[in-house]
Design a protein that fits this description.
Layout lengths: L5 H9 L6 H17 L4 H13 L8 H19 L3 H15 L6 H13 L2 H13 L2 H17 L4 H9 L7 H8 L2 H11 L9 E4 L18 E6 L13 E6 L5 E5 L3 E3 L5
Antiparallel strand pairs: 1-2, 1-5, 2-3, 3-4
Helix pairs in contact: 1-2, 4-5, 8-9
């Protein structure tokens, strides 16, 4: 019978699906060390033996928990169909937890129930048909909201990164709703699509709401200017009157990015 090497022992250990995540990571680190050094220190050999003894036999899982695992595996299939990576990872961790003999917490059960209720046949079908319903209107709204969060460098970084890697990325229905239908982007979209208060060529000046800084040092804006672009940039804030204009100072020729609320009609004094 061939001699059992540490490679065999590590492979046998890591093949067990009931090892906890924490222990698996430690065992993998021991294995990496062994492959690098071709040997183990006395302390590391002791740990290998401890893990072999600890995981010699799989934990006993009740029929009830076997059913729970089966239900979670079925739900994971739905999560894959819905491109829900977070839920896939969450379910994987729960299955691993149950296989190690540990029960689910009340909070984990609550989240699992919420996911079960939300991942209906209708939801799965929506994702399946989502690409066919993707149109220019949705694409533009999505692009505006992604750009808003890219500039603000705050939430939805995962979606922003996906778009950065693939300009033609089509979000899932859940991603689309979350980034376009929250209280901030609702205001961004409302400002972008609102009727413009000023037209190209209108003469304007600063209103009392104009900040001292911003828009390329607005403090340097002199008496009056003219509108040369409308909606050239997406709104930078979620405040009312956030539609963006490019204004050229008529005296200096300098150009400023101005929010609608920062402007008012210029009235020439005779």
């Amino acid at each position: 019978m061939p001699r059992k090497t540490y490679t065999d022992r590590f492979d046998a250990l890591l093949a067990k699906d009931y090892i906890t995540t924490r222990d698996r990571e430690f065992i993998e680190s021991l294995y990496t060390y062994y492959k690098s050094k071709k040997s183990l220190t006395a302390g590391r050999r002791t740990w290998v033996q401890r893990f072999e003894e600890k995981y010699a036999n799989p934990p006993t899982i009740s029929n009830e928990m076997e059913d729970v695992i089966s239900d979670m595996e079925a739900l994971r299939v739905r999560a894959v169909a819905m491109r829900d990576e977070w839920t896939q990872g969450f379910i994987d961790s729960l299955i691993q937890q149950v296989k190690t003999g540990r029960t689910l917490s009340s909070r984990q059960k609550e989240i699992l129930q919420q996911k079960t209720e939300s991942m209906t046949d209708e939801a799965v079908n929506e994702v399946a048909n989502w690409a066919d319903s993707w149109n220019d209107e949705k694409k533009e709204k999505f692009k505006i909201c992604v750009e808003y969060y890219r500039l603000n460098n705050s939430y939805f970084k995962n979606i922003v990164h996906k778009v950065a890697a693939n300009a033609d990325y089509i979000p899932t229905p859940g991603e689309y709703r979350s980034i376009t239908d929250n209280k901030y982007t609702k205001k961004i979209l409302a400002g972008y699509y609102a009727d413009a208060k000023y037209n190209l060529g209108d003469l304007v000046t600063k209103s009392s709401q104009a900040p001292y800084y911003g828009g390329g040092n607005i403090r340097n804006f002199t008496t009056f200017g003219t509108i040369i672009k409308i909606n050239h940039k997406i709104p930078q804030s979620s405040a009312r009157g956030n539609k963006m204009y490019l204004v050229m100072d008529m005296l200096t020729g300098e150009q400023y990015h101005m929010e609608e609320r920062w402007l008012k009609k210029y009235k020439h004094k005779a």
